[in-house]
Each structure stands twice: as C-alpha cells, then as structure tokens.
Amino acid sequence: MRTGIIASLSLIFALGMSACSEKTQDQVGQASEAIGNDIERGINNADDKIAAGAEKTGRAIENIGHDVGAAASDLGSSAKNEAAAATDDASKTLEKAGRDIRD
Predict the structure, then answer these.
(1) What letter would DSSP give residue 36?
(2) Which of 15, 22, 86, 87 is 20 to 30 Å from the Cα of 32, by its Cα?
(3) pTM of the prediction?
(4) Structure confidence by residue, pLDDT tens digits, 6-55
(5) Over the range 34-64, which residues count as b (16 or more CB within 10 Å of their CB) and which as e?
C-alpha cells in the first residue's frame, strides 16, 4: 500500500511537473512570438523611415537641379544682356570716333 501511495504521488508530481513544463513552454513560446513581432515591427518601421528619407533626398536633389538650372538660365540671360550692352557701347564709341574723324 505504501508503494501504491508513493507511486500515485510520484505520478501526480510528474504530471504536475509536466503541466508546469507545458505552461512554461507556452509562456516561452508566447514571449518568443512577442519578441518576433516586435522585431518585425521594428524592421518595418525602419524600412518606412529609410524609404521616406530616400524620397526626401530625391526631392532635395531634384530641387537643387531645378535651382541650378534656373541659376544657369539667369546667368545666361545676364551674360546676354551684358554682351548686348557692351556691343551697344562699342557701337556708340565707333560712331563717335567716326564723327570725330569727319569733323
């Protein structure tokens, strides 16, 4: 009888340990899943931030290109205006010199 009780207690203890172990395994599994979900969210957030940063950089480069183009156009217009003014000045000077020679 004593061995029966000891065997029963051992069986109950083993089942209790098995249940405890199963509960622990479930908790570890849940914790692992939560960690995996956190890592996945972190990677997705990082991807989104990288994509947004790349898009911002692209827009900034595009804007710089437009600004450089506008500056080059302005510079070209200024150079054209300066050349026209210099040509006009040269023409006036030659006309004056021609009048001076005739007079």
Answers:
(1) H
(2) 15
(3) 0.46
(4) 665 565 556 555 656 677 667 767 887 887 788 888 888 888 999 998 99
(5) eeeeeeeeeeeeeeeeeeeeeeeeeeeeeee
Name the residue with tokens 């911002």. Answer: 56
Tell me phi and psi for residue 42, to 5 degrees. -60, -40
d(CA 68, CA 80): 18
Q: What are 42's two structure tokens?
A: 């972190």
| Of the candidates 84, 81, 58, 77, the residue with the CA atom closest to the CA atom of residue 69 | 77
Q: Is the dihedral of CA 37, 39, 44, 48 positive or negative?
A: positive
